[in-house]
Amino acid sequence: MRIATSQITDNAVASMQDMQTQLAKTQQQLSTGKRVLTPADDPSAAASILSLNQTISLTQQYQRNSNVAQTRLNLEETSLSGASDILQRVRELAVRANNGTMSASDRGAIAAEVTQLSQQLQGLANTTDASGEYLFAGFKADTQPFTANGAGVIAYNGDQGSRLLQIGPQRQIEVGDSGASVFMNIPASGGGVQSVFDTLNKFVSDLNANTASQSTITDIDSAANNLLTVRAKVGARLNAVDSQNSINTGYLTQTQSALSNVQDLDYASAISKLNQQSLALQAAQNSYTKIQGLSLFNYIR
Amino acid sequence: MASGGDLLGIGVSALLAFQRSLATTGHNISNVNTDGYSRQTVDLQSNTPQFASNGYVGTGVQISSVTRVYNEFLSNQVLANNTANSRLTSYSQFTNQVNNLLADPNTGLSSGLQNFFGAIQDVANDPTSIPARQTMLSQGQSLVDRFHSLDGSLGSLSQGITTQLSSEITSINSLAQSIAKVNNDIVIATGMAGGQPPNDLLDQRDNLIQQLSQHIGVTVTNQDNGAKNIFIGNGQNLVVGNQAMTLSVTGNQYDPTQAEISLTTGASSATVTNSLSGGTVGGLLDFRDQVLNPTRNALGRIAISMAQSLNDQHHAGVTLNGQLGLDFFTPPTPQVLTSSSNTGGASVSAQVSDVSALTADDYLLQYAGGVYKLTNLTSNTTQTLGASGPFTVAGLTITTSGSANAGDRFMIEPTRAAAAGLGLALNDPRDIAAAAPIATSAAGNNTGTGSISAGAVTDISNVAFTTTAGALTPPISIKFTSPTTYQIINTSSNALLDTGTYSPGTGKDIFPSDNLALDYGYQVHITGSPATGDSFAVNYNTGGSGDNRNALALAGLQTKGVLDGGATSYPQANGQLVAKVGTQSSNAQNNLSTQGMLLAQAKSQQASVSGVNLDEEAANMLKFQQAYQAAAQVISIGSSLFNTLLGAVKGQ
After folding, report:
1. B321 and chain A: CB distance < 8 Å anywhere?
2. What is the largest CA-CA distance in chain A?
């Protein structure tokens, strides 16, 4: 076929430009480590990358939420275990006080210790977390849940709400118990319900009146049982958070490797592609300069 | 037998012919790099022979014509490929910009959405924390900023298109005038030369037409007198003989910022935008219609749906101050544009009524025959709405007022301006409604195992919530009169509102109530086995600063389907948008590289016919030089023959 002289240059320049574009793209892929540089490189992969990135960020958020849940549940468990210890001590004192040989002054001494313990328990029931939220106030986190009136009767000012945290895509977990369920609504030996504080108050007034207090031991046992039930629930929740956390970690690893499969560059093939492309460009440049020198005019003297 | 004079004449004719051939070769060589140049050849013809007694005797050579080597079919192929190539070049260049804009982690929506919803989760983790709430507001603001900057970049692309269209139109007008002038020159030159082609003028005109075709798609027809007529669009005249029409850029009848193109023929002017195709102009218009505006619409749809669904959920919550939540985002309103040619006094407005039915399409509302008709401009389907609004259609409520005249038109762009119209409405972190408005409780002295759920709001606009701010009207108690029957009692007045029956095995949703179907805009569920005398209460969530139920619901919107009838969440809608523009951009790039090859092929075919090859010209030069030298020898022989004759006569 006939060819125009200008075509030789035009074609050579066009093909060299084309090769340089490809070379630049491969180089950019190598320097970013990414196969998909813009959605146009692979539109369906780009959509997957967006959704995988969202999954990763959500899962990381669930892990953060799990940590918050763990912190709160651990704090609750610490407070509850302190409360259990106090009730244990009160029960010992109650057993001792019921001994017929006890004198009024002995019982007075016990009364003094029980009063101390009661205040300590009240302090635990008013535990706050690091940001000053009352742990046992239900939703009323800014309201001190347990306060004494003039007669020393402890009233509950919180509500019965309990906070849920999102620790997995479909998993919410309670991270607290209302003070009502922990300290207030405990079945009483005389029927109905009674708060653990009322139980202790009654014990103190019995001691001060120097009378044996048979019902106290039953009521303290029932309060301690209630605490144990709540602690068992807290323990179960901590386990649940742990297992959800390991599910999240596994899911995160999987998702990240899926993302890497979609998005990341296969270095070996990219480098060999780069070599091929630069070789082709060199060949094109070389051959152009050789062809360019060929002309019949060189031989006309 | 030829005489010496004949020989001289023959030699001179050959000298002239080869001199002309050499000159044409020189002309070819000197134009080896001239765009649009077709190589020329000198057509030689032997002279009319003279009759001598013994036959016809040759009298030398003459030039019949100087013609260019040109193939109209190949030229038209280059023209068509040129038009398609320029269209794809501008289309792909702009589409690629949108593609990069949406995908860039610093400008794209995706990470903005992730950060914002992450901040909501952090509020859910610690609802009393003012810093966490402040972060949620800041992330909300930066999400709004992302919408604004994305839409702003798309808006400046739109302006860029208007500017570029203007300069394109200027070039087209000037090329059209040049073509008309060259047409005129060609007609005159052809006439003067008795039909001989003015080769270089023809090349010049072809080159001008090639240039024009890069700006806009054209059709070319030949006139008998040698002029060429140029048509654009669906056959609108651009150049007829030596007359050129004028194109101009005008504003759209609805939206003056959207450029339209008008063609002025004599005194009349008509908008031809929709019929234009090909060339840079076609590429720009296609980009605007197929990529830019749909992208702005899709982005706006995400903005509207996010604002609306987040606001709806936020309204159903309670702030740190115990009040029901207000708007979190300033919701953008759909844009209704009135045609500048309307004669009636009607005005039209639109509100989003149902996000899940909202589309990213534009609609044309026309008043004709006493009724409004709505046309979806994407699907081109029309429906009759009625004589006057409000109309509820396509997720919109369209309100009309005033009286329209027949033929009046309104353009409804529900989502076009929405990304720009989005704003953050809250500025006090305490106003974030993280809590739910109701709190349920079981009486302390309940003896059964019944328990009540935390409750869920179903309709925050219920009078139970709206009668008194910060209170439930009425507060409710549910009192069990037996293990299977209960009363619903107004706690503040002790009035019996309704009764119901309960089955301990299955539990029960209390509302709507059994007999009177009472519904207070929320639902509570009782499970277990309540004993006679047990009671449960539902109150306003006063002081519930540690409640995060509404924050959890807000955070859940990240993955909840709110668009397309509940099938698509906004991150998914964003993913769809990115993939769609990515596909458009990748198709454009692929088409462009294919088209580039077709153009290169067409050009090389044309060049292989019309282009100058220097080696060929060198060979021709040697050929003509030798012929010229030989012709000079002929003259020399003729001259010496004549001298011999003169010498013989002198010698006698």
Report:
1. no
2. 142
The answer to whether the Cβ–Cβ distance between B121 and A163 falls below 8 Å is no
CB B458 within 8 A of CB B512: no
CA–CA distance, A47 with A226 (Å, rounded to integer): 52
Q: Beta strand pairing status for B438-442 and B335-338?
A: unpaired
Q: Is the dihedral of CA A285, A288, A292, A295 positive or negative?
A: positive
Q: Do B559 and A169 touch (CB under 8 A)?
A: yes
- Mean pLDDT computed over A21-34: 92
Strand ranges for chain A from DSSP E: 146-148, 154-156, 164-168, 171-174, 186-187, 193-194
Q: How is B158-221 classified by DSSP, letter by letter?
A: HHHHHHHHHHHHHHHHHHHHHHHHHHHHHHHHHHHTTT---HHHHHHHHHHHHHHHHHS-EEEE
Q: What is the CA radius of gyration of chain B?
A: 42
Chain B residue at shortest CA distance from A1 = B608
A49 is written with which tokens? 């990358």
Residue by residue, what is the 3-state secondary structure of B52-84?
Answer: ECCEEECCCEEEEEEEECCCHHHHHHHHHHHHH
Angle between helices B570-610 and A43-97 (to 10 degrees): 160
**Residues B377, B411: contact at Cβ < 8 Å?**
no
Q: Phi, psi at residue A225, to the nearest 5°?
A: -60, -40
How many other C-beta atoms can be found within 10 angstroms of the C-beta atom of residue B440? 23
Q: Torsion angle, CA of B353/B356/B359/B365, rounded to 10 degrees?
A: -30
For residue B113, the chain A residue with the least C-alpha distance is A54
Two tokens, residue B138: 């800041």
Interface of B with A in 556-575 (CB under 8 A): 556, 558-559, 571-572, 574-575
Residues B283, B187 contacting (CB under 8 angstroms) = no
Contact B212, B230 (CB under 8 A): yes
Summarised one tens digit per residue, pLDDT across range A161-188 is 888 999 988 889 999 888 988 998 888 8
For residues B608-635, give the mean pLDDT.
92
Q: Which of A4, A165, A166 sits opposite B607 (nearest CB)?
A: A4
**Rounded distance, CA B169 to CA B248, Å?**
6
What is the value of ipTM here, to two decimals?
0.84
Nearest CA to A241 among A89, A77, A83? A77
Q: What's the gap in Å between the CA of B25 and the closest CA on chain A?
A: 13
Interface of B with A in 57-86 (CB under 8 A): none
Q: How far is A298 from chain B (nearest CA, A)?
A: 10
* CA nearest neighbour of A125 among A195, A215, A32: A195
Confidence of residue A63 (pLDDT cuts 50, 70, 90): very high
Q: What are phi and psi of A112, to 5 degrees?
A: -60, -40
| Average pLDDT over every residue of A37-64 | 89
Q: What single DSSP character describes residue A140?
A: -
Q: Which residue of B has its CA nearest to A193?
A: B445
Rounded CA gap, A208 and B209, in Å? 115
* Average pLDDT rounded to a whole number, residues B84-99: 93
Could you give the CA distance from residue B182 to residue B204 in angstroms, rounded to a whole number? 8
- Asked if B526 and B452 count as a contact pair (C-beta separation under 8 A), the reply is yes
